[in-house]
Amino acid sequence: MAYCGHCGEAVDARDHARCAELLRMEPPRFCTQCRRRMVVQVTPAGWSVRCVEHGDLSG
């Protein structure tokens, strides 16, 4: 199952158009694979997030 990176709900549970819009401006807060809340660090150069289970992402 896949999860929304913004709200953490299942992707097929509802329309996530607003979440997708928000994710264009800010980093994801939830892991899309396991739904865990991620550690988020925002810097002037970008952002990075880390899931305990799945590792690092950056943008």
Automatic annotation (TrEMBL):
Keywords: Biotin biosynthesis, Iron, Metal-binding. InterPro entries: BsaP_C. The keyword Methyltransferase does not apply. It holds the Pfam family BsaP. Coiled coil: none annotated. Belongs to the BsaP family. Required for the activity of the biotin synthase BioB. This is Biotin synthase auxiliary protein.
